[in-house]
Design a protein that fits this description.
By secondary structure, the protein is of the alpha+beta class. About 35% of the residues lie in helices and about 15% in strands. α1 packs parallel to α5 and α3 crosses α5. The longest helix is centred in the first third of the chain and has 22 residues. It is globular.
């Protein structure tokens, strides 16, 4: 069903086109070799992931400036129906009633293409399926236009040494690669349908917009990109939160190297340290703030005694909740389901862990991501670096029950 938001996305895409024609991309300081040394042998991967997420955030921000917003609230979950869409949507996914917009497809095609050129030996996994684009020509045309406009900046920037871009985006080969042709765009989206990995193959994992409902309704959403090793362990995680106002909008984690914060532009990490939250000095009985997904599970999930004590709501998607936990805004986040999708969680789990927190299954064991789906025993239990051992144990015990 196409309604007002689809028309609003078209208008926003046209505005984005005019913006890119009229305004030369702002040059940023040239990336130095020191900008990602903190990530060790994963420096190139972190640089490319941050740059890709920055480009996707730019797309979302330009669209958001011209889009009409749909109605929605944090308590109704991630699904949307016709009654929720006075401002409309691009498409409701068959089977789960979650929305997807042209921006989701555009970001997946764009980041898939950029990583294909930067790391051709790696696989790529994404949430979206180009079959929906082939079935909806208007949606496909809009998504391709958005992808073209915001990857076009990468090609144009190849002539400007001051622009901070992944290395392979600055050679002549990209300008002749047909990145923005319809067939290449669809193929790059379809790369997300990752087949079983071969021995030694790494895999990039993307959720182009986690919390699409939040994007459509002016609430929280995340662009999440992770890199997995051949065994399904997360090596890199980058979360970009375009609406973020309290901290730098991007956090990036590298396994064993910690977490750093980035602005929406520029390759160098910032010297940002989230402040110790007020709840951190309380006792477990004080019920520190925490989050759960799905919200419907909260009736039986009681970690701090009185039902609902300390429970918060936050829209939309799982990744914005991982972000809140890594930033110390809540003591913990529990994903109460046991069969999950990799793109919803891989990025968030490594960010929580490398922020100094804990991210395990309900038994305290590590979580790995062997394919598009994964299973956990009792759900996923995350605790902030500021959560006391007693608070984390209370969350684990409630998940076990």
């Amino acid at each position: 069903p196409y309604t007002t938001l689809f028309r609003s996305l078209v208008a926003a895409a046209l505005a984005a086109t005019a913006y890119h024609i009229a305004v030369k991309p702002v040059a940023r300081a040239r990336r130095t070799s020191m900008s990602s040394d903190w990530a060790g042998d994963l420096s190139a991967e972190v640089e490319a992931a941050v740059a890709a997420v920055q480009r996707a955030m730019r797309l979302c921000n330009v669209l958001a400036g011209d889009m009409e917003l749909a109605d929605g609230d944090a308590t109704s979950g991630k699904t949307m129906g016709a009654c929720d869409t006075t401002a409309g949507i691009s498409l409701i996914k068959a089977g789960d009633d979650t929305p997807v917009t042209a921006a989701d497809f555009a970001i997946q095609g764009m980041i898939s293409g950029l990583l294909r050129m930067e790391f051709p030996q790696d696989r790529f996994m994404g949430e979206e399926d180009a079959a929906e684009l082939r079935a909806e020509p208007s949606l496909c045309a809009l998504a391709q236009r958005l992808c073209s406009e915001f990857s076009q900046g990468a090609r144009d920037a190849a002539v400007d040494d001051n622009l901070d871009l992944p290395r392979n985006l600055m050679d002549e080969g990209q300008r002749e690669s047909g990145l923005n042709s319809r067939d290449t765009f669809l193929a790059d989206v379809d790369r997300g349908l990752e087949p079983p990995r071969g021995e030694g193959e790494r895999c990039w994992v993307l959720d182009p917009i986690d919390g699409t409902k939040g994007f459509m309704t002016g609430q929280g959403f995340v662009i999440g990109l992770a890199l997995l090793d051949a065994h399904g362990d997360a090596l890199v995680g980058v979360m970009g939160v375009p609406p973020e106002a309290e901290a730098p909008p991007i956090m990036a984690a590298a396994r064993g190297r910690g977490l750093r914060w980035f602005n929406a532009d520029g390759a160098a990490p910032l010297s940002h340290e989230p402040p110790k939250p007020d709840w951190a000095d309380g006792a477990p009985a004080d019920a520190p703030p925490w989050l759960i997904s799905p919200q419907s599970a909260s009736a039986s999930f009681v970690p701090f005694g009185e039902a609902g004590a300390g429970l918060q709501t936050l829209c939309c998607g799982s990744m914005i909740k991982y972000h809140a936990c890594a930033a110390g805004r809540v003591a913990g986040f529990v994903q109460f389901e046991e069969e999950l999708k990799t793109w919803d969680h891989a990025c968030g789990l490594i960010c929580v862990a490398e922020s100094g927190g804990a991210a395990t299954d309900a038994q305290g064991r590590p979580v790995v991501f062997p394919g598009r789906g994964f299973k956990v025993d009792g759900g996923v239990v995350c605790a902030s670096r500021w959560a006391s051992p007693e608070v984390r144990q209370a969350l684990l015990d409630a998940a076990k029950r």
